[in-house]
UniProtKB/TrEMBL annotation:
PROSITE patterns: RIESKE. This is Methylxanthine N1-demethylase NdmA. It comes from the Bacteria. Keywords: 2Fe-2S, Iron, Iron-sulfur, Metal-binding, Oxidoreductase. Residues 32-137 form the Rieske domain. It holds the Pfam family Rieske. Its EC number is 1.14.13.178. The keyword Oxidoreductase applies. One of its GO terms (molecular function) is metal ion binding. InterPro entries: Cholesterol_7-desaturase, Rieske_2Fe-2S, Rieske_2Fe-2S_sf, VanA_C_cat.
Length: 355
């Protein structure tokens, strides 16, 4: 009913009742995460959630960059995302307080103009940038890494398609581990790209900084038969594909699929954005270097792949990714997920510290 007469409300940081431990929250908050499509933030504020923190995104005008702030007006903690953009300012819908792009209050309608605006009336702002068609936010003011580098999205390598983000009731770690799990492909992706080979050839994982990469040659189901992709010119149901997966900690992965027979290349860039500990918004971009497939077909195919994964990943129990390797059983095909779990533990995640 009441907060204490002593001020105990946190000024920032992990919200009360967060599903993340304080340790994990602080580590994950020091990375950039996508929170929205750039196109989603237009002429009114948008509310999103990152690591349990409600965040308001807004542009002070057309063509302006996106600002990010805690989705709470410091006056009465109303949701700023319920407000509007007025006079080039984010305007709280409750009492009309106006904030500029830097989060400073510049107008209080109920305050006599000759009286000063309280200096403490500033929003809790976050680092925010737009790239690859996404709005990225870092909740820490000292990010420990930049954004993943995905040159093919920006350099005209091929047809670029941004997949509408989906919301999964799964942890970001379970999602991203699934993305580079080859073992499940012939079992789960039976109507998309899964091939007939169930034995996964041995492979090595190469670690460099925050990145983990491996390559494997597999037989996969021909993609885009109806859409005129070069693969379809072959008179075969399956074709050879060289997969290269590169995961960037904590939650992004770039997949390159190369078909040597047709010399065509197809890429998927995938990021799991941790909304809560067990809810993840999936951001994906597909680049088709063959330029033979319409963006709508690239999106539709990727969504079908996601649908195949979804039912399995949301049902994994526990939803939290075990970082003690003894908690699940691993086979050689799981080399990548073993190294991913090790690397996440080396970041300090999963440390058994009291909250
Ligand atoms: Fe999958």
């Amino acid at each position: 009913m009441f907060l204490s007469v002593k001020n105990t409300s946190p000024a920032g940081g992990r919200p009360p009742n967060s599903g993340f431990t304080q340790n994990d929250w602080e580590i994950l908050a020091s990375f950039w995460h996508p929170v929205a499509l750039s196109t989603e933030v237009a002429d009114k504020p948008v509310g999103v959630t990152l690591l349990d923190v409600p965040v308001a995104l807004y542009r002070t005008g057309p063509g302006e960059g996106v600002s990010a702030a805690r989705d709470a007006c410091p006056h009465r903690n109303a949701r700023l995302s319920l407000g509007t953009i007025k006079n080039g300012h984010l305007t709280c819908g409750f009492h009309g307080f106006e904030y500029d792009g830097g989060g400073t209050c510049v107008r209080i309608p109920a305050l006599s103009p000759e009286l000063p605006i309280p200096k403490k009336l500033c929003l809790d702002t976050y680092l925010c940038q737009e790239r690859y068609g996404f709005v990225w936010v870092c909740l820490s003011h000292a990010p420990r890494a930049g954004l993943p580098e995905w040159p093919q999205v920006e350099d005209g390598s091929g047809t670029v398609a941004i997949v509408p983000p989906g919301l999964w009731n799964a942890s970001a770690a379970r999602h991203i581990e699934n993305f580079s799990d080859l073992c499940h492909v012939p079992w789960v992706h039976t109507t998309t790209f899964g091939g007939p080979e169930v034995v996964i050839p041995p492979y090595d994982v190469h670690k460099s900084g925050l990145s983990l990469a491996f390559e494997v040659n597999m037989l996969e189901r021909v993609r885009y038969v109806e859409e005129g992709h070069p693969s379809a010119t072959q008179d075969a149901q399956y074709n050879r594909a060289l997969y290269r997966y590169e995961t960037t900690l904590p939650f992004s992965c770039a997949l390159r699929v190369h078909h040597p027979d047709t010399n065509s290349t197809y890429r998927v860039f995938d990021v799991g954005s941790p909304v809560t500990a067990q809810t993840t918004r999936i951001f994906q971009i597909v680049v088709d270097e063959s330029r033979q497939v319409a963006p709508e077909a690239l999106i539709e195919f990727t969504e079908r792949i996601n649908d195949e994964d979804l039912s399995q990943v949301v049902a994994q129990c526990p939803q939290d990714l075990p970082l003690d390797l003894r908690d699940e059983i691993h086979i050689p095909a799981d080399r990548m997920s073993v190294e991913y779990r090790r690397a996440m533990a080396e970041l300090g995640l999963g440390a058994a510290r009291p909250d």
